TrEMBL record:
The lineage of its organism: Eukaryota, Metazoa, Chordata, Craniata, Vertebrata. Its main location: membrane. Residues 27-113, 149-237, 262-355 form the Ig-like domain. InterPro entries: FGFRL (IPR052615), Ig-like_dom (IPR007110), Ig-like_dom_sf (IPR036179), Ig-like_fold (IPR013783), Ig_I-set (IPR013098), Ig_sub (IPR003599), Ig_sub2 (IPR003598), Ig_V-set (IPR013106). Residues 1-23 form the signal peptide. This is Fibroblast growth factor receptor-like 1. It comes from the Eukaryota. It is a single-pass membrane protein. It is found in: Membrane. It comes from Lepisosteus oculatus. One of its GO terms (biological process) is cartilage development.
Length: 377
């Protein structure tokens, strides 16, 4: 048990060092991927999401703007990516792997194409030549093949969501190659920007200096030639930093909760932060029960179970919300739960207790028959 509030604070301060204070930054792509993936009808396809970060990012998959969840029976969500079994024609579309932690986020985009080999074999003449590569779609008058534009410095484009303080600068890069030589235009939301100064080489880089709140926008580079076009979008958020001691605070939640045995209890954690925070749920593990959890940290002689944490939702008032649900509550689920919020400026936490009521014994009312006097007639 903690002897006082200071000891709890000291333990959690050390725990923050383990979880987030030594964070290297936002999520990043660990290896390049092919944005266009072809799957055969009825087969299995895997879309990798090779992202890493410290703290480890939360990963969300989206198809055509809809979140992919466990209810999609043929889709399997895993840390390494998304696996789709028995591919159907309706599985074709635009997929995105979105990874985020308290320091930023990144998105890996895929276009999934579903082909039917049997139908293709029936419709294609036996002597039909091999289809041309998707990269080469024609020729210019000199006989040189046309090549669709492609980004040549993808590693410099991994961070697509940027949070910058007022007065800072940021450089957005979209260097690409192709044949004929592609041209690039830059857009701020729906408005085309004037070409950057400094020659053709500078066209591939957009530099924003002395950022102000009105510079927050989506910046898109459109690269095109006769063979096709590609684009990349950066989201720039200009942050007005307030007093550094108030960059992260927790509201009145979580609060102490009572649940009946077998019921469902829930805690919520509301964090006010200048930038998107990392929210982590912990449960204090009592002595002798350390082996019941696969992810347990020992800090200052105390053990904490690191609980699975879902997506952190932003709210219109500038706060961030996360919820923890305990389904089919058992006796061992009772105890202290801690919501820990951290960002680049510091951390804050709030604890609450869960009480699990024992199963109540059924109450039977015993009725005894009593003699009723006979009527006098």
């Amino acid at each position: 048990m903690f002897h006082n509030a200071e000891s709890l604070t000291a333990c959690l301060a050390a725990l923050v060092l383990v979880l987030s204070c030594e964070a290297k930054g936002p999520p990043r792509v660990s290896r390049p991927v092919e944005e266009r993936v072809t799957a055969r009808l009825g087969r299995t396809v895997r879309l990798p999401c090779p992202v890493e970060g410290d703290p480890p990012p939360l990963v969300l998959w989206v198809k055509d703007g809809r979140n992919v969840h466990q209810g999609w029976s043929r889709h399997r969500l895993a840390r390494q990516g998304l696996r789709i079994k028995e591919v159907e024609t309706g599985d074709a579309g635009a997929y995105a792997c979105r990874a985020a932690n308290g320091f930023g986020s990144i998105t890996i985009n895929y276009t999934l194409v579903v082909v039917n080999d049997s139908a293709a074999g029936q419709n294609r003449p036996p002597s039909a030549p091999t289809e041309p590569s998707t990269e080469r779609v024609g020729q210019d008058p000199t006989g040189q093949p046309w090549v669709k534009p492609r980004f040549t410095q993808a590693t410099k484009m991994r961070r697509r969501v940027l949070e910058q303080p007022v007065g800072s600068s940021v450089r957005l890069t979209c260097l690409a190659s192709g044949s004929p030589a592609p041209a690039v235009t830059w857009w701020k939301d729906e408005q085309r920007l004037a070409p950057p100064r400094g020659g053709a080489r500078r066209q591939w880089t957009l530099t924003l200096r002395n950022l102000q709140p009105q510079d927050s926008a989506r910046y898109t580079c459109l690269v095109a030639n006769s063979a096709g076009h590609i684009n990349a979008t950066y989201k720039v958020d200009v942050i007005v930093l307030r007093n550094s001691f108030r960059t992260l605070t927790l509201g009145t939640h979580p609060v102490n909760t009572t649940v009946e045995f077998g019921g469902t209890a829930s805690f919520q954690c509301k964090v006010h932060s200048d930038v998107k925070p990392v929210i982590q749920w912990l449960k204090r593990v009592e002595a002798g029960a350390e082996g019941r959890s696969n992810a347990t940290l020992e800090v200052g002689g105390q053990h904490f179970a690191v609980l699975p944490t879902g997506e952190v939702w932003s709210r219109p008032d500038g706060s961030y919300l996360n919820k923890l649900a305990i389904a089919k509550a058992r006796d061992e689920d009772g105890g202290m739960y801690i919501c820990l919020g951290a960002n680049t400026m510091g951390y804050s936490f709030r604890s609450a207790y869960l009480t699990v009521l024992p199963v109540s014994e059924p109450c039977f009312l015993s009725l005894r028959s009593t003699a009723t006097p006979s009527p006098p007639w």
